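Subject: Sanity check before I submit

Could someone independently write out the structure tokens for this chain? I want to compare against mine line by line before I put it in a report. The sequence has 342 residues.
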Amino acid sequence: MILETIWFLLWGLLWAIYFMLDGFDLGMGTLLPFIAKNETERRTIYNAAGPFWDGNEVWLITAGGVTFAAFPAAYAVLFSGMYAAMFLLLFALILRGVSFEFRSKVDSQAWRRVWDVCHFVGSFAPALLLGVAFANIFRGIPIDAQGVNQEGLLQLLNPYGLLGGVVFVVLFVQHGAIWLAIKSQGSLHDRARATAIKTWPIAVLGTVLFLAYTAVDTMLFNNYLENPLLLAIPAGTVVALVGIRPALGAGQMVRAWVGSAAFIVGVTMFGVVGLFPALLPSSLNPGWSMTIYNSASSPLTLKIMLGVALVMVPVVIGYQFWVYRNFSHKITDEHLDYEEAY
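---
Independent answer below. Compare away.
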């Protein structure tokens, strides 16, 4: 039971780290057509994400790999039951990755415009789909006794799922706007900061609506009511959200980004802890839910994986720390003139 619980919390934390890191470049990509006014500003947005986006997606691969290795039964139900949604997510992420590399290959405005559209779609769609998917997991999936999902893609687009998707998009847009303000200068910096300020009350409203809907339509609050100490998680999440606004007003963009990152992690962990011990709760019958007990790999497998994780995860964190430190500068014309720039 202890190993299963450890891996459940690690599973949730890996997803939270992915949302925290890839969220800002998905947010910038979603903002691209609306905030960039010329080619220099568009290239600034690409290069603000360029050194980081592929490293950020390592956490998505890791989270998916942990789901497969630690909880293979839940992985089978999740990826078969949401196959269409997962395929759309994968296609969108591939489209976004290709847009980074192909956009500058032909000196043509029309060519660049096509890849800008692909970049936008490949950023907006994953944010929306991830929000819809996790909201449906929080709500419960119609899994029968054989572990078969009785609904398809269209049924995922229920009001609660769509609200979750919209909230994810808003949080990522705010996160991306703050990061862009950190990395840019001049009028683009000013517009990015203004966008983050305008997005903040929408994020607050979306969070309040989502929590209210969650209390009515899901069982997530049960664990918190049974153990009030767990309320520290949503309380800390609210503190992080409230702290973003004064940091934005003071122009302290790094502090605002840290607050936004903490908020995204808090929202994710709120849902994960609320699910425990279920990974995929069944809306048809709680007894048919995929839990950490009926989905986990053998204790030996979990022990070996834990040993590997304790060695490799710090290596990945160290590498990413090095990347973020070395590319912490603002994007200037000199950086855009660099041969390897996007």
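---
OP: Matches mine. For the report I'm noting this point. Residues 54 and 97 are 8 Å apart (CA to CA).
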